[in-house]
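stage 2 :: seqdesign
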């Protein structure tokens, strides 16, 4: 089977690196996988070991517009019909503008899909990548599907049209599926399936550290919804009670200066390192080599917007036997569904966060035991080999 796999920027950008394992697995199963970013940000593909072909077509590049024009000449009435759907369908005005902006790109992709004899198109988001896939399918007759995440399921971007047109919709969580069925109507229920986004699971657990004290990692952008301020307060409580730790903040963002100031004011500078953006491969290598004992994600709900989905950073840590402490926000509970495989605490509660971290810091044996159960949780439900095989079979392979 030949598959087109539509992203936002991957692999021509630093975002969406968490899709790489799924692309590799698909490439090992399919005859060909063609990765097409909707809005490529760089000129060079960032991951040369995908085993897939990538196609860089900037939104308004000359080649994109020429291919779009060729598609219009080939099927003018079909293009007009699609345009009418994009303009007249009831959906959010901002989404409508974005959809019209990607229409030339969609026409160009339709040309390439026909030329390359693609047999199935899969979009990684229900936003503009799904718009491109929807248009391509309307113009070529090639079946399409999409992966739905909570954030884009909450946005009215031609949602009913897309859900009615797609051969199946892969919801990455139970709550996302419920939301899609609620918004798309009962006829969506049979075609909407929960299929997790998986991560690689090494052959063996690498978790070996048994010393007292704890080395923490917080892998998150320095933005309000990640809740770093509550982790800083929790670290101050740990220090006050004489619990040894080192904590790395791996990420950058607009809160960097204020968090630096807070760490300095609390006398935590010697124990907290701001690492900035850490390349994904380096982060994974450190986790696999047991550089960290515990991963902490203190996320919070902000302004009523959807909280965390199922964080890939937590899955990757658990896959190598590193236990996690996270807050009860969004869909985190669908990953950490049992306190024996990691910990979930109330959000915005620095005391509860400190208590959970202290439990791991003071009992290395328990830390290793929970780490082993965390790894088993990933093996059971989030192994990318199993999730990708199921996705491939849903595509009709």
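stage 2 :: out
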């Amino acid at each position: 089977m030949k598959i087109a796999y539509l992203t936002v920027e991957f692999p021509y950008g630093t975002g969406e690196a968490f899709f790489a394992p799924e692309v590799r697995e698909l490439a090992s199963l399919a005859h060909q996988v063609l990765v097409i970013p909707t809005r490529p940000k760089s000129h060079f593909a960032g991951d040369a070991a995908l085993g897939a072909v990538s196609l860089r077509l900037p939104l308004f590049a000359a080649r994109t517009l020429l291919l779009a024009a060729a598609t219009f000449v080939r099927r003018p009435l079909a293009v007009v019909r699609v345009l009418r759907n994009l303009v007249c369908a009831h959906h959010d005005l901002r989404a409508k503008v974005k959809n019209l902006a990607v229409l030339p790109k969609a026409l160009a992709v339709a040309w390439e899909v026909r030329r390359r004899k693609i047999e199935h198109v899969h979009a990684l988001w229900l936003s503009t990548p799904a718009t491109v896939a929807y248009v391509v399918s309307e113009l070529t007759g090639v079946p399409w599907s999409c992966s739905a995440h909570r954030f884009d399921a909450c946005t009215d971007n031609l949602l009913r049209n897309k859900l009615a047109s797609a051969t199946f919709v892969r919801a990455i969580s139970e709550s996302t599926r419920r939301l899609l069925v609620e918004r798309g109507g009962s006829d969506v229920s049979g075609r909407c399936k929960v299929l997790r986004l998986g991560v690689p699971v090494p052959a063996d657990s690498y978790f070996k550290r048994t010393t007292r004290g704890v080395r923490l990692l917080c892998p998150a952008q320095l933005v309000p919804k990640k809740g770093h301020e509550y982790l800083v307060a929790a670290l101050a409580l740990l220090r006050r009670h004489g619990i040894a730790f080192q904590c790395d903040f791996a990420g950058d963002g607009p809160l960097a200066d204020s968090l630096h100031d807070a760490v300095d004011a609390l006398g935590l500078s010697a124990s907290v390192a701001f690492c900035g953006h850490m390349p994904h491969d380096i982060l994974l290598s450190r986790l696999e080599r047991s550089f960290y004992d515990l991963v902490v994600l203190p996320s919070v709900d902000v302004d009523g917007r959807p909280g965390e989905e199922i964080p890939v950073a937590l899955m990757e840590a658990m896959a190598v036997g590193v236990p996690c402490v996270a807050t009860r926000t969004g869909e985190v509970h669908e990953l950490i569904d049992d306190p024996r495989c990691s910990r979930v605490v109330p959000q915005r509660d620095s005391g509860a966060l400190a208590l959970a971290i202290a439990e791991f810091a003071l009992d290395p044996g328990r830390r290793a035991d929970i780490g082993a159960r965390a790894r088993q949780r990933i093996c059971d439900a989030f192994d990318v080999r199993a999730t990708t095989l199921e996705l491939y079979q849903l595509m009709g392979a």
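stage 3 :: structure notes
- The first helix runs from residue 20 to 29.
- Residues 214-381 form a domain with the Rossmann fold fold (CATH 3.40.50.2000).
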